[in-house]
Design a protein that fits this description.
By secondary structure, the protein is of the alpha/beta class. It is built from 11 helices and 11 strands.
Length: about 280
């Protein structure tokens, strides 16, 4: 696959719903678990994002900024083509190429990516910008890569996510430990995002909230369980190895976790622990 996208956009810039449109809540949860088989805590969080993305539309070509191994794009961007991935970590970029869901995968830092100006009708980024220390530079690069009228669609944790951890056992130390482990650098408010996007020449056209408080608390408990060590290995690493060796019945595993996560997933969104933001170039 190509390592660099073409300089001239191809495909249709007409808004196209994500592949999540029309899916039931139970289907969204199942899809999130399928994308994160060894880590159901992440699947629970991801499912709340999927519920918001169900209502979003944007054009193609699309860049998946911070694509990881490509599993999420295989779900969300299934109907958008061409699509390219951008990923910093060599192992993840290699996995994304091997998965074959992208036209090309660019291995690069998002703050100085080799992207042609105006090459994309959309840039999509799911739970990535909070991991980039200079998120402003990453947004500027995304804005530069957008064609006129193009959209930046992204999800990020909100200040409420951090505040809930800070108010819990361990206080500020627990939040710092969470940030260190997850690699979180930012929890911006909607007003802060509006100012940052405006400085990059983008205007917000839609926002939504996800990850309600009781769902986050369920995520925290499950995440603590899955990262607990049995000897030298985390439980999630043990499950990952079992899945790779095909020693876990896939259908039964997905059905079991769908049933167990259904109630925490279905909590109403009050003070959102995360944002979905859609911003558009002029």
């Amino acid at each position: 696959m190509a390592n660099r996208p073409p300089s001239v956009p191809a495909g249709s810039a007409s808004p196209l719903p994500t592949a999540l449109a029309g899916r039931s809540d139970r289907e969204l949860l199942r899809l999130a678990i399928e994308a994160h088989l060894h880590q159901p805590a992440i699947a629970l969080w991801r499912a709340t994002e999927f519920a918001m993305l169900r209502e979003v539309a944007f054009g193609a070509p699309v860049l998946d900024l911070g694509c990881g191994g490509g599993a999420v794009a295989g779900v969300v961007l299934h109907d958008h083509w061409p699509r390219d991935g951008l990923e910093l970590l060599a192992s993840e970029a290699r996995a994304a190429r091997d998965l074959g869901v992208y036209r090309g995968v660019i291995r690069s830092d998002a703050t100085r990516a080799p992207l042609a100006a105006g090459a994309y009708a959309a840039v999509f980024s799911q739970s990535v910008l909070e991991h980039i220390p200079d998120d402003r530079a990453a947004v500027r690069e995304a804005a530069r890569a957008l064609a006129p009228g193009g959209r930046l669609v992204f999800t990020v944790p909100s200040p409420a996510f951090a505040e809930r951890i800070r108010r819990g056992p361990g206080g500020e130390a627990a939040l710092q430990a969470t940030n260190d482990r997850l690699g979180h650098f930012h929890y911006r408010s909607l007003d802060e995002w509006a100012a940052l996007l405006d400085a990059c020449g983008l205007g917000i056209v839609d926002t939504g909230g996800h990850l309600p408080a009781r769902t986050q608390h369920a995520w925290q408990r499950l995440d603590a369980l899955m990262t607990h060590r049995l000897g030298r290995r985390r439980i999630l690493d043990i499950f990952r190895a079992l899945h790779r060796r095909r020693l876990v019945p896939r259908r039964a595993w997905i059905a079991a976790w769908t049933a167990m996560l259904w109630r925490p997933f279905r909590r109403p969104v009050d003070d959102p622990g995360g944002y979905l933001i859609v911003a558009q170039a002029p």
